[in-house]
Design a protein that fits this description.
The chain has 192 residues and is of the alpha/beta class. It has helices at 22-39, 56-63, 115-125, 184-191, and strands at residues 15-20, 46-52, 71-81, 84-93, 103-111, 131-139, 152-156, 162-163, 179-182. A hairpin with a 2-residue loop joins strand 3 and strand 4. It is globular. The chain starts with 14 loop residues before the first strand and ends with a helix. The model has no long low-confidence stretch (mean pLDDT 93). Bound molecules: inosinic acid (IMP) and magnesium ion (MG).
Length: 192
């Protein structure tokens, strides 16, 4: 992977390249919101269920573009340490809503191996929602280890590690308003 040099005004030395600007993100989120509004126009119980913490910026933007009554809830799961995913997905905090009979949209920041959504999806289906769909801001199709439909997707990206718009590397970079690729070599050096 060859990446262009780091412009001087990035707040972290390991940010290699902006993939999506705030304007591009906003435009895509507007489209997803319009699609969801249309698809759920007859829904009586719509729940946006976000995975903490990466999906926070995405879900709060998205919900403003859903023009239909809805509620939100969150779960916290972990499968990651540093920049490596594992197949062991641990529930750290469960959602509060009893989702039986609800139209649930499970929202995450990014699908990488897919283990996280795959596991949470199975768990949620056992809880008998009326329907369950998946929404992710980003997807790295080359990295999938398990498969499931992503019903609402922001953007597909190559196998980059990315930060910004809620996504982090070891908790750094979540507040960046754009989505940017990380130069992992520079990141490792920045830790030394
Ligand atoms: P998966 O289980 O491998 O699909 O990983 C999904 C989770 O890993 C996401 O919810 C993110 O929290 C994290 N993740 C995967 N790829 C990236 C990335 O490029 N940047 C930041 N977080 C990532
Ligand atoms: Mg996450």
């Amino acid at each position: 992977m060859t990446l262009p040099p780091n412009p001087p005004d990035f707040p972290y030395p390991f940010i290699a390249k902006v993939l999506f600007t705030p304007e591009e993100i906003e435009q895509r989120v507007n489209q997803l919101g319009a699609q969801i509004t249309q698809d759920y126009r007859t829904s009586e119980k719509l729940l946006l269920l976000g995975l903490l913490r990466g999906s926070v910026m995405f879900i709060t933007d998205l919900m403003r573009k859903v023009h239909h009554p809805m509620t939100m809830d969150f779960m916290s799961v972990s499968s990651y340490s540093g920049s490596e995913s594992t197949a062991f997905v641990r529930i750290e905090a469960d959602h509060k809503t009893n989702i039986a009979g609800w139209d649930v949209i499970l929202i995450d920041d990014i699908v990488d191996t897919g283990y996280t959504i795959y596991t949470v999806r199975k768990l949620l289906l056992d809880r008998r929602p009326k329907s369950l769909r998946i929404c992710a801001m980003l997807d790295k199709p080359e990295r999938h280890k398990v498969d499931f439909p992503i019903d609402y997707l922001g953007f597909s990206i190559p196998d980059y590690f990315v930060v910004g718009y809620g996504l982090d590397i070891d908790e750094k970079g979540r507040n960046l308003p754009y989505i940017a690729a990380v130069d992992l070599e520079k990141y490792k050096k920045s830790l030394q």
